[in-house]
From TrEMBL:
Entry keyword set: Methyltransferase, Transferase
One MF annotation (Gene Ontology) recorded for this entry: methyltransferase activity
Domain THUMP-like: 357-425
GO biological process: methylation
Pfam families in the cross-refs: PG_1098_Fer, Thump_like
PG-1098 ferredoxin-like domain ranges (all copies): 313-356
Annotated stretches, region: Disordered: 97-125
Protein name in the entry: DNA methyltransferase
Length: 437
């Protein structure tokens, strides 16, 4: 539909029912003069989803929200802001006339604050962004704020119509909307400071795809063309990808890898491609305000195990670190020791400040010996149970221990450095020892 034809009666209906259950509204809605009820219901549902996912957008009157699938696939406000901060750092280095890799040791800001906006004064040259996969425009709207010019490209006419309506309401008067195939449009556009792509991860039948070559557009096939058009290319990919293989597939073009999580759930994998050959990219593991960065060189061996009688604190890395697999970096950076080579759990004799993950105080440890387990679970009716490199799934272990889910106690079942199957009883450190953590 042509969104310029939305009537004031339709907007009034949306405003009147925006806080109601959309199913109830649909059940009782009557077709009134000038009200497009199906469109209004779609907007009420979209605005309600946006209050959780995009609170800044939900607060702006008059924005149009797309059908359910694009709304589900779009970035959250946190991840969009993170990309904007990253883009801001990259464009600042371009304005300074220095390669962005010279600034590689400075992590992208993971805060929830909005970007500072376009630079004023007299920069050496105007900067520009091309988003080849505009979609609903969430990523584009945040990143465009830090460029002097921005071009949104999208092959679906419906989403282009929505973008033309929404972008001025978001203050992006310097943005241009282009409807077309990304690969075709890319060849016709002028060079830019940065290109962004979020390849579609569904095939023609709607099934999810994860390999880069199976996504649309195929970034690997377009790599040379992309880097000929811009010195920096940012690519958003599925967190399901093997990022080491993905970096290898780009054959030295990846300067940075960003593994972005929020609420301890890995949301996306961002790659920054440059024209310079890079032997070892810098990797950022981000989970809300927790940031760990390192150079992905050859890993060193793990430190020796710590005697169990010295274990006082247990640490579980966040989702981004789990995805990165940088457990040797965690040991060196925070002075902790791995419980076992494949446990992905760490212990220390003293509390560790600012560990990027969850922290626990160890109360007791047991092997799978019946009497030791009985002593470990004495007085317990409920516990939160996790298994790491352990031969028994959570449900089976819960039945064996005769415990219900929940409570303040956390049990970690794993395999230690001596290949013993053990269960570690803990409580959260922040609640019990907030004075030292």
């Amino acid at each position: 539909m042509a969104y310029v034809e939305i009537t004031k009666e339709t907007w009034a209906f949306i405003d009147a029912h925006q806080h109601e259950d959309v199913r109830d509204v649909a059940l009782h809605a009557r077709r009134a003069d000038g009200v497009d009820v199906p469109f209004a219901l779609e907007q009420i549902a979209g605005r309600q989803r946006a209050r959780v996912k995009l609170p800044d957008w939900a607060a702006i009157d008059g924005l149009i929200f797309p059908p359910q699938v694009p709304m589900e696939q779009c970035s959250s406000q946190f991840t969009a802001l993170y990309k904007a901060r990253l883009a801001q750092r990259l464009v600042e280095s371009l304005r300074d006339g220095t390669p962005h890799t010279a600034d590689v040791g400075r992590p992208a800001d993971a805060s929830g604050d909005a970007p500072a906006g376009r630079t004023t004064g007299h920069p050496p040259a105007a900067t520009s962004l091309i988003d080849l996969t505009g979609g609903f425009g969430v990523d584009f709207s945040y990143m465009a704020q830090v460029f002097d010019r921005a071009t949104y490209v999208e092959r679906q006419p419906l989403l282009c119509d929505i973008a033309r309506h929404n972008l001025p309401l978001l203050g992006l008067t310097h943005a241009n909307v282009v409807n077309g195939d990304s690969a075709d449009v890319l060849r016709s556009l002028e060079p830019a400071s940065m290109i962004f792509l979020d390849p579609a991860r569904r095939d023609d039948h709607g099934a999810r795809t994860y390999a880069i070559a199976d996504c649309t557009p195929d970034v690997l096939a377009l790599q040379e063309t992309l880097l000929a058009k811009a010195p920096v290319v940012m690519v958003k990919l599925s967190p399901m990808l093997d990022w080491h293989k993905t970096v290898a597939d780009f054959d030295g073009a990846v300067a940075e890898v960003h593994i972005v999580s929020t609420g301890n759930e890995c949301k996306e994998l961002l790659l920054v491609l440059t024209r310079a050959h890079v032997d070892a990219p810098r990797v950022w593991c981000v989970n809300d305000d927790q940031v760990l960065d390192f150079v992905d060189a050859h890993p060193v061996s793990f430190a020796g195990p710590m005697p169990p009688d010295q274990w006082r604190y247990l640490y579980e890395p966040n989702a981004s670190i789990m995805k990165a697999g940088c457990f040797d970096v965690v040991e060196r950076r925070f002075g902790v020791r791995a419980v076992g080579r494949n446990s992905h759990l760490f212990v220390a004799a003293e509390p560790v400040a600012d560990f990027p993950g969850r922290s626990f105080v160890i109360e007791s440890i047991a092997t799978m010996n019946k009497h030791e387990l009985k002593s470990l679970t004495e007085g317990l009716t409920h516990a939160n149970i996790a298994v790491r490199n352990f031969p028994m799934p959570v449900a089976q272990l819960r039945r064996k221990l005769k415990l219900k889910d929940g409570g303040d106690v956390y049990l970690f079942a794993t395999t230690d450095a001596r290949d013993r199957h053990i269960v570690i009883r803990t409580v959260k450190a922040a609640t019990r020892y907030s004075n030292v953590l």
